[in-house]
Amino acid sequence: MTETIDGDVEAPADEHPGWRHYAKELGPGLITGASDDDPSGIATYAQSGAQFQYGLVWAALVTWPLMTAVQEVCDRTALTTGQGLGELIRKRFGSRMRALIGALIALLMLANALNMAADLVAIGQGMHLLHAGPATLWAVIGGIAITILVISGSFETIAHVFKILCLSLISYLIVLAVSHVDWGAVFRNLLIPHITWSAAYFGLLIGVLGTTISPYLFFWQSANRVEELRAEPEGGPQPVTLDERSSGLARLKTRTSRMDVLFGMTLSNLVMFAIIVATGATLGADGGQKIGSAADAAKALEPVAGSLATVVFALGFVGSGFLAVPVLAGSGSSAMAGLLNKRWGFSRSPRKAPVFYGLVVVATIGATLLSLLHVNPISLLVVVAVINGVLAAPFVAIVMLIADDERIMGDHRNGRLARTLGWLTFALMAAAAIALLAIQL
Question: Do 59 and 209 meet the contact criterion of CB atoms below 8 Å apart?
Fold first, then answer.
């Protein structure tokens, strides 16, 4: 038997708990993974399948371990310190580096706002496809509803809403099930990359990498885990870190948190795989099509996969859009507030974290207004892809330097596997950024 933090006796923490315990502990990792499959990501994956059929499906297999490793590192920094990445940047780096990183975070917040605008447009288009009314009206309703939720809702309410919205991703597995797939060709392309040497192919490959290993996910994973620690019965304003728990409870928390991250990143990459394969089997079978948005993909599916596939696809990206917008707003806001040494988090009231909520509201309302300007969402996403492509490598490096620092992490600093996969991700994203800039120029 082991002790709880308050000294009570509970079940042995050294034993592996049952699946119900792991299911109950699903949270930050699941939400992060699901939010990665937002309408802009869905449009990128759908375009990959429509234009190159199964030619890019191998990317889902490559990004899975790299994405999982980086998110586990971000998650562990929160578990170890009880602080978000913004606060840890203040602790790890000097004033000049903090100023430079602050500029990078501001650039990330701009990319997030543009991404949010594109996602709100997609929500409106999805609701219009479902015959619920004008697209513009639903984009505004979505922006206002999200703003009200994050300002007035408690963290427990927000967390529950987020978990429910994660269920929308099941729709893409349904679309895959009703598509006629050549599984032999899929697995050949999954295990042996068939690369097309063209700017269009590499442009989409970089887009897939950028939307899968996005910098905002690093900050959200860390922040959401801290919020979860605050919400624990033994938590509060000062979350209980791993070193403040008994050794058995610390091992149990580390294990369940890693399973949460693994499950979330697996789901994210499985959805990517499903969208590429489903659109490849339907739209890509005719030699490649151009898709401008997730809504275009949903409409194009109807002649080849039926109206059910169109409706289910639309429901998926509407749900994922409602999930992604507050995640995008909260990730950058928590990073900047933490860097400025201000209180942050949805678990705190607006009165106690005014800078954080001010940034969230400005980002959400700004994105809502931008969605009314009839700006082409694909044009926004091109800008977002360029910014994220440039920012991903330096932010991976920042995360790895924090997690490798023994003064901050103690015995929980990176091991050999985390260090290898993390720096491999840095090299891949740096190469992708160079290639992206070369293609854009």
Answer: yes
d(CA 276, CA 115): 21
Contact indicator for 258, 26 with CB cutoff of 8 Å = no
51-77 exposure pattern, b = at least 16 Cβ within 10 A, e = fewer:
bbbbbbbbbbeebbebbbbbbbbbbbb
In a domain, 377, yes or no: yes
Q: CA 70, 75, 80, 82: dihedral to nearest 10 degrees?
A: 130
**In the structure encoding, which two tokens stand for residue 291, read together?**
């898709």
- Provide the residue-wise pLDDT of the chain in tens; the chain has 441 residues: 344 443 443 444 445 666 566 666 677 888 888 888 888 888 888 888 888 889 999 999 999 999 999 999 999 999 999 999 999 999 999 999 999 999 999 999 999 998 899 889 888 888 888 888 888 898 899 889 888 888 887 667 777 787 777 777 787 888 788 778 899 999 999 999 888 888 788 888 888 888 888 899 999 999 999 988 888 877 666 888 888 888 888 888 999 999 999 999 999 999 899 989 988 888 776 666 677 666 777 777 766 556 677 787 788 878 888 888 889 999 999 999 999 999 998 888 888 999 999 999 999 999 898 888 877 766 677 678 778 878 899 999 999 999 999 999 999 999 999 999 999 999 998 988 888 777 767
- Which is it for the CA torsion 19, 25, 29, 32, positive or negative? positive
How far is Cα 81 from Cα 410, in angstroms, rounded to an integer? 10
Domain that holds residue 77: 16-440
In a domain, 432, yes or no: yes
The total number of structural domains in the chain stands at: 1
Residue 5 placed within a domain: no
In a domain, 7, yes or no: no
Q: What's the pTM value of the predicted model, to 2 decimals?
A: 0.87
- CATH number of the domain that 238 lies in? 1.20.1740.10
Please report, for residues 167, 224, 244, 314, the alpha-carbon distance to residue 308 in angstroms, rounded to integers and kept in the order given.
18, 35, 52, 10
User: Structure tokens of 131?
Assistant: 């015959």
